[in-house]
Fold this sequence. Notes:
Elements: E1 7-11, E2 13-14, E3 27-28, H1 30-42, E4 46-47, H2 50-56, E5 74-80, H3 84-97, E6 101-105, H4 128-136, E7 139-143, H5 156-174, E8 180-182, H6 190-198, E9 203-205, E10 219-220, H7 227-233, H8 238-247, H9 249-259
Parallel strand pairs: 1-5, 1-10, 2-3, 4-5, 5-6, 6-7, 8-9
Helix pairs in contact: 1-3, 8-9
The protein binds zinc ion.
Amino acid sequence: MSTPRVRVLMYHGVDRVSAARDPHGMFVTPRAFRDQVEHLLEAGYVPIDEATYLAAGAGTGTGAGAGTPLPRRAVLLTFDDGYVGVGEHAAPVLASFGVPSVLYVPAGLVGGSSDWLPARHRHPLMGASELREVAADGMAIGAHGFDHADLTTLGAADLHRHVGAARTELERVVGRPVRSYAFPYGTHDARVRAAVRAAGYDGAFAVHDAAGPFATGRVDVNATDTLRSFRIKLHRHYPRARRATERFPLLRRAAHDLVGRAPREELSAPEATGGGR
Ligand SMILES: [Zn+2]
């Protein structure tokens, strides 16, 4: 029997947002999100919660799984940034299916907006009461920096604010333990991984550059995904295949041609969700 490997999915927003206001495709439509969750359950994947994930100590798939064994098709759903649409559209779907997840929030931007992005690409983030509500419905809350700065650029005092103080602040806001961390932009180095570990977190997530349980890789699910590409991303070997296509861009384009791309919505009211809250 092979070593169980947890598939960790990384979402950002779940909402209907035009391509013009979301050029990087961070927002999955509510409909696509529901289809993806239904597919996970129908295909026999077993969504696990943060506590189960951390107890397994199996983040990297490198044989670190010294803790509690996980189901063979375990999957952990994560959401970065804390967009309002995740509370409005994703949390109710997850709650209705009893699917747990983890939401990574920049501690200094609770109730603010994604103002690390250019003005017209910003979207509102959940406030304290919304975070407490989704937490009560089964979303663990994790830390995602203080104001979404790239940790690798910070001096020691700022690093503490974005790691240790961020945790204290989020625990105060949510009233629950904050146990894991997701690096803004997925960027990390040995120094920031050590800072996260020293601050008492039990694990941390990167994106493509995995480096042990304090920088576990995740699979990015985004607006361009069809149900077909989503299924391919769930494959155990997907992260390795992706790294290969990164080295060979033509292969990557060919793969996209093969699985298709979801059409982006062209909604006409560009400022409908208001960016500056
Ligand atoms: Zn982020």
